[in-house]
Design brief:
Blueprint: H1 18-34, H2 42-52, H3 54-61, H4 74-85, H5 91-99, H6 109-120, H7 128-139, H8 143-152, H9 158-201
Helix pairs in contact: 1-4, 6-7, 7-9, 8-9
Length: 221
Amino acid sequence: MDALSGSHPKMDWEATDLVTAWKSFQQHTEFWFAGPLAKTSEAQKCNYLMIWIGNKGRDIYSTWDLSEIDKKKLEVYYQNFEKHVRPKSNKIYSRFKFLSCVQKDIDTFEEYLTDLKILVKDCGYANPEEMVRDAIVFGTKDHKVREKCITEGSELSLEKAINFARTYELSKAQLKTMESEDKAINMLNKQGSRSNNFTSGKKYGKQYTPQRGPPQNNKGQ
């Protein structure tokens, strides 16, 4: 029972993009069926799916005319639900979302790249890799990455664009770390210098600041 205590899959039938919602739900169920429920029969997995699918999903299921054999095939359930949500997808809207996707200041490049790869799946482009490549050039938040990609010209591939962006982001992070370490080292050096000046003043039996200099020797006056 402990293996079943995690977050169960839940289909969001109120989502504006049912195709994406279904894909997310299906992926979640597949993880469960390959993990905690790996030893259950396929018929039992079908029952779990129908528990998680919610009332709306069960209403849809009631409209199917499945044979007793198909009722025990998980792939049949996946295919039928896919058919139900697919007509409700809008290719124009999917392309609008993809083309509007730009890298936000708080986004890492990997987060941005993942968003692009997910969005492009529903666009129906003949060459999705080329579209993702172009989106990186247009949507990156780093001007130097865009400049490097444009300089590459017609030789620019998706792989090159990804490498440019990853390398630049890593370089920025490393430079930031180095600058932070330099500041820390400078601070320690300043503290060490003040400590040395304080110690040297004790040689004359009196503390003094570097500006005032050591106390004068009045012997003989």
